[in-house]
Protein 1
Amino acid sequence: MSALGAAAASGRYLAEAADAGLLHRVRGLRYVAGMHHDPLLDERRFLVEYGDEELLADPQWLAGLVDQALGEDPRAASVVVRAPASVPLDDPWRRELSYLYHPAGADAPATGTDAGSGLRVRPAEPSEEEAVADWLVRAMVHGSADLGTTADPAVAGQLARECLAAPGRHSYVVCLDGRAVGHATLLCDAEDEVTDRRAVELVDLLVDLPEGPRREAATALTAAALAHARRLELPLLGHVVHPSPRTDADPGARIVASLRSRGWEADHVFWRRPTGSATDSPSRSEKGAA
């Protein structure tokens, strides 16, 4: 299966974008863009959800998106562009999220068996739904902090409940001494809106253990997710958050490189560029980074 983000946009997607007034053309090239409110970050952003690769490789066109964003909404805090992983954007664009997929699953211990060091992975029970929701909220709040803002826990809680209620949602827990200490939550009916391709999406994986056992538990949960996707004959799709830069180093890039060394393939990236509007002021960013 080819990279999800590198595939051409589906005819259905482009037709619906055109009907909504979101399909634009420049020099005969197409892009789909419009204003979007990110509820978790509470940010107005101009989202370029699709662009022909020739446009995405044009720095002058990319720079002009800032003026287009502010022309549509002076409150727009940023421009966010989805691009295939094969089309990197230059400064001042910064990676925000990288999506990767594992195309064919991997050898993994069966769930419900000992994963080593007393760890055991099994499907989450109904009585553990609240713990899974709490882990999802923590992941969203911490992820938003990595992106330089502070998420409202109440909003994160609502999004967590929506995730748990989604069709095809499946959660695994890893247990130590009979107690659940982490989870992996999957959306098994996920579909890439742009390309219409299906995948099992690993929404979140979090473990409440010290560093050494945490790595072992995370490996066991990832193996369970890979095995689940393999049984459904679908790729496993995951994402990596790239923290807002405080130094030149990008810890997210190191995670992506590590995943690629273990059989994952880079798919697509969401790139962010601030517009410089009042809603993206330094005080807002500093508050989120605190």
Protein 2
Amino acid sequence: MKWILLLALAASSPLAQAGFFELGGSVNYRSSGYDKNNYIQSLTYTASGSYYFWEMCAWEINYTKGGSKQVTKGAATIDPKTTVQDDITMTSLDLVVSFAGRQDPFRPYIKLGSGYLTKERYRKINNDPREKISAQNGLVPSAGVGLSLNISKEFSIKLGIDAWTSPLDEDPLVIDYAGRAGMSWIF
């Protein structure tokens, strides 16, 4: 709630001169395996919306949803087939500072903020029902660095690395990160 109030104050400030929006999205997919019974797959979607209240400063809201699945089975017929699935959902609000103007061909940026993370891990053996074996929920700090490559006045390709921790009340504290490549539209 505090972030929304801060965003509204910054956007309505007389110093808010830029006043343009950027919408973005990315999809990350990975598949790696040895055979049909031993593989890893992951798929993550991220959507973002940014409001530039100054030429090189923005509030960015991100929503990420995704997961991964690891399947393992030994060579013997009696070996169990084990599936471990991770699901993640994160909503974050970050302050983004660009180091170049809107029209520049390359816009490096950094961002810092916080989000709400939900991370759950499930295990399934053969055809048994899946069981939850781990879960984390809570507020997390987030940060990132990246580069926006302008293709046209309204369209750009964004490359970056985002990082966040496990909820601060978790022990041990773990840092997760994701490499992102996506597109954005400025209007």
Protein 3
Amino acid sequence: MKTAFADTLLQLFEGLAPPPGSGLVVTALDVEMPLEVSAAVQRGELVFLAQAPHSRWQAGFLPPLQRTRLRLALEE
């Protein structure tokens, strides 16, 4: 199942959040990971779809991958 690129990023960053009540605060985050990215038209609009490349390990083939590098940081 392909997911909207924005939703994939939100899921990624939510998964990296510290546990509630741990007292930890994330002030910066660097992420580098491969993604399977494609474009589609939904309701007449261009959307980008992305997911982690789990299919390459399950199916034994290598679909095209894009390297994603993101940096989020609190700004004072």
